[in-house]
Design a protein that fits this description.
By secondary structure, the protein is mainly β. The protein has no helices and 11 strands.
Length: about 110
């Protein structure tokens, strides 16, 4: 069983930055995909960014060039650096880990508003 603890959400003005963190509670290294999804009110959950076991990355088209995903394998932690935030980035952001099973974090609210 893997538990995911997210942090770093909050309220930020348009153009600002936030850094999300997700720590996976597990004694052994997670070998698999780690990533972030988001869900805005009234919309389906969507992929934001994913970093795979060999550190290749995928991004949603509307965050490319603004968001950067990274991982610290020694700490079983994945990060999402979000720059140039826009109001349309407002959503609950969920951490995701896939090993032999899939795991989700509880979600952290990101609100971009002036």
């Amino acid at each position: 069983q893997v538990q995911l603890v997210e942090s770093g959400g909050g309220l930020v003005q348009p153009g600002g930055s936030l850094r999300l963190s997700c720590a996976a509670s597990r004694n052994r290294f997670i070998i698999g995909d780690m990533g972030w999804y988001r869900q805005a009110p009234g919309k389906q959950r969507e992929l934001v960014a994913m970093i795979r076991s060999l550190d290749s990355t995928d991004y949603a088209d509307d965050v490319k060039g603004r968001f950067t995903i990274s991982r610290d394998s020694g700490k079983n932690t994945v990060y999402l650096q979000m720059n140039s935030l826009k109001p349309e980035d407002t959503a609950v952001y969920f951490c995701y880990v896939r090993t032999a099973s899939e795991y989700w974090g509880q979600g952290t609210q990101v609100t971009v508003s002036s």
